[in-house]
């Protein structure tokens, strides 16, 4: 039987200093990050061993680390997150990443603006 399986982190809330405007760089903003990575869970289902899975605590630490490095563009931050996942988690077969800046400084009433990346 063939299946798809994922591990995910939903709506991680972080304060970071990404943006083009000087105020964004000085005071920062709040961001939401949602991440879903595909991998074969078969070994972990059978072994009950964390070595056979993609550890979501380690994924969180990776996201937090990359978010702490200021960038002008959200695309750049998202690209760093994706690259780090690919390098540090060889079991990963796909990545879905959503990075949202809450209350972006553009004079619009909206819940956020951001970028999504879907890699297969």
Indicate the topology.
Blueprint: E1 6-16, H1 22-27, E2 29-38, H2 42-47, H3 56-67, H4 74-88, E3 94-101, E4 113-119
Antiparallel strand pairs: 1-2, 2-3, 3-4
Helix pairs in contact: 3-4
Task: Describe this entry's structure for a reader.
This protein is an alpha+beta fold and 120 residues long. Helix content is 32%, strand content 30%. It has four helices and four strands, in the order βαβαααββ. A four-stranded antiparallel sheet has the order 1-2-3-4, covered by helices on one side. The longest helix is centred in the last third of the chain and has 15 residues, at 74-88. The radius of gyration is 16 Å and the shape is elongated. 18% of the residues are buried.
- Going by helix content, strand content and strand pairing, the class is alpha+beta
Q: What's the helix-strand series?
A: EHEHHHEE
Helical percent range? 25-40%
Q: Total helix count?
A: 4
Strand content: 25-35%
Radius of gyration based on Cα positions: 16 Å
Overall geometric form: elongated
The count of DSSP E runs of length 2 or more, i.e. the number of strands, is 4
Write down the overall mean pLDDT. 93
**Alpha-carbon distance between the two ends:** 20 Å
What low-confidence regions span 5 or more consecutive residues with pLDDT below 50? Answer: none
- Identify the strand order in the major beta sheet: 1-2-3-4
The major sheet is characterized as: 4 strands, antiparallel
